Amino acid sequence: MDGLQHRIAASLAFAVMAALATPDAHAQAEAPVKVGIVGPLTGPFATTGVAFRQGLEAYAALHGDKAGGKRIEVIYRDSAANPTTAKTLTEELLVKDKVKMLGGYMLTPEAVAAAPVVNETKTPLFLFNASTPVLLKMSPYYMRMGQHMHIPAELGATWARQQGKSRGYVAVADYLPGHVVEGAFVAKFEAEGGKIVGKDRIPLNTVDFAPFAERIANANPDVLEVFITPGAPAVGFIKALAARGLTQKILIIGQGEAEDNDLHLFDDAVLNFHSIIYLAGSLDNPENNALKDKLRQKFGPETTTSAFTIGAFDGLHVMYKMVENLAGKPFDGDAAIKSVIGYAWQSPRGPVKIDANRELVQNFYVRRVEKVGGKLQNTVIKTFSAVDPPPPAK
Amino acid sequence: MTVASFILLYGLSYGLVLCLIAVGLVVTMGLMRVVNLAHGAFAAIGGYLSTGLMVEAGVALPLAIVGAVVAVGLFSLLVERLVFVHLYAAPELDQMLLTIGLNFLAIGSLTLFFGPNVYPTKLPPYLAGSVDFGFRTFEVYRLAVIVVGLAVMAGLFVVFELTTIGAQLRASVDNRTMAQAAGINVPRLFSLTFAVGSGLAALGGAIGAPMLPLEPTYPFKYLILVLIIVALSGFGRIKDALGVSILIGIAETAGRYFWPEASGFVIYVLLIVLIVWRRDGLFGRRASS
Prior knowledge:
The complex is a heterodimer of chains A (394) and B (289).
Chain A: H1 2-21, H2 25-30, E1 33-39, H3 46-63, E2 66-67, E3 70-78, H4 83-95, E4 101-104, H5 108-121, E5 125-127, H6 135-138, E6 142-144, H7 150-162, E7 167-173, H8 176-191, E8 195-202, H9 210-219, E9 223-227, H10 232-243, H11 246-249, E10 251-254, E11 274-277, H12 286-299, H13 307-325, H14 333-340, E12 344-347, E13 350-354, E14 360-372, E15 375-387
Parallel strand pairs in A: 1-3, 1-4, 4-5, 5-6, 7-8, 7-9, 9-10, 10-11
Antiparallel strand pairs in A: 2-3, 11-14, 12-13, 13-14, 14-15
Helix pairs in contact in A: 3-12, 3-13, 4-5, 7-8, 9-10, 13-14
Chain B: H1 2-32, H2 39-55, H3 61-82, H4 92-114, H5 125-128, E1 130-132, E2 137-139, H6 140-162, H7 164-174, H8 176-181, H9 186-208, H10 218-221, H11 223-233, H12 238-258, H13 263-277
């Protein structure tokens, strides 16, 4: 009995030693750097998750899958835009798959749910889309690859005033980002001498939007700021506005409701819908043209860039940059983030720079939906260059 | 005046679409006491089929809708004979679990064939504009929905109240055993009703598509509204289903117009009040077995 125990202990010790000894320096150099992507690949927000994936795959196709001598492996997980799922998947990716960086997190609640996890593991997390100001305060490891949502709302107010609009109406989805847009637009519009004639917060479960269109029409505004989740709600709302004649009668400004990759979901109701965001699929620069060519080649001739494609595309670009900056050293979240502060590059969206608060200094474009050659597209009608994000939320 | 007329007309058109979708379930649930949570899937399939026929195959809208309604009716007959027939004796929990499973199956199939996004629909030019009533304009489409909805419900009412088959149906809802004993072929009657009910849901999904966008999660998205109508209508009462649906349509429209922030709750407040106040359905109900 005693002898058997000895033998088991000895063989166990041997096995442990063998296991510890094998992963030599050679094997470690070969090990890929894993990147976890959490996004809605199914469910009502699936267009966004698909756009994320297209952006990442296009980047790898254009720039290779290696950075700093290491292979970058991208792992996709489907959150279906559910915050609880997003948090669980984040934990799984970190613990089981040992990812070094994370990306995706379409909606603010998903990003909020993941913050405590990455704060624990000190893992850089790239927000491809979520735009609520408070997010970057929740984690020092969050990097914004989309926008600070105050910017398009405030630019919308300024631009509307420049167009001589004086009666403003705000209609937003009734959740935190909507409230932020409402606050930013109202403050700026009133500061610039405009009058707010109505404010609506639209419940997220709304299906028939006609009553909201009716309310807005009856308040007789000349500019309407909207913020509605893309997909079915955006389609329903914009169609209701068009049916009430508002898209032709007043200036309607949104953000990401009618991105180029979503335009086919609308009919001509979406014509003359304006939006302000950090990209337009129709931008004519070498980076955007190369990206568009690659997207069409990989995913079919109808594919186009959207704000969501570009958030993912640039996110992976900065991830590569971090791995390069830390080449030869073990990956460390704090050092990785520090190494890209102040980093500037040419993105398909135009010149971009990461500022000290992990926000992007970038161009913003006023776009109008037009029909060009029988196809709907967002045409740029004004560019705001190198817009500085507001200082971080207190 | 313009506000009141807006709420009435838009509430009516919204309510009628909900009514078409729900009325089939009101009757089949009354008849067989089967909790069919997959009923909304027939509406979704009807909407997808008619839109697909119109947009992809270029079929005229009325023809596309009729085609979708007939196809869904026949398809539901098949489903009833193959699947539901095993459920009639099963406990309610089993019925719910299985029909929820069918819903997931429907959602998966719709995603597979039509993609995960909203399935875009287009109105033909003759429905796209607005008509001017003098004091205000209304969408032609909404008016068309009201006309079709009221006509179909009127037809249904006539069949249900004035024909032999309607009498058999009412008898079977009230007391299935007795009806069977009196020589009514209840299983066959049920198959027929199931097919017609599913066809009506398809009609609702098809004509409602521009109002309630088609997406794969449709069968669950509108399930609550449909169940509210069923709960407030009482078993097998077509007239009540119509009344309840219109009430819900108008209440939701008015809620969104007057209290936009709270409008998500108006329907539930209405549900609670009505359930407490009129436990036996909105307009009362005959004692049933």
